[in-house]
Design a protein that fits this description.
The chain is of the alpha+beta class. It folds into two domains: 40 residues; 55 residues, IHF-like DNA-binding proteins (HU Protein, Chain A), CATH 4.10.520. The chain contains three helices and five strands. It has a three-stranded antiparallel β-sheet with strand order 1-2-5.
Amino acid sequence: MTRSDLIKAINNRIPGLSEKDTDEAVRMLLKAMTDSLTSGRRIEIRGFGAFDLNLRPSRLGRNPRTGESVEVPAKFAVHFKPGKDMKDNVNRAAQNGVPNLSQKKSA
């Protein structure tokens, strides 16, 4: 689902909202979530899941072309842990048939 798909889904559920207002609300929500993670705070949405930061320590890597050792700096990675309700709903849907994975991009 893309942001525009989300906006359309919200507009279909709440017909009184303009697409412009829905777009602004979605943008504000995503900005608030980004700002929270950027400042090191955890995000928890009951029934949906939690977003947290994991610190990946610095390590010694290797340049694949030259074989030379290079220092890979420490960085943060965003981690998402789905909530119980979400896991239950996804698993229940999967029991009724395989979810549509045709849009999943191959690595």
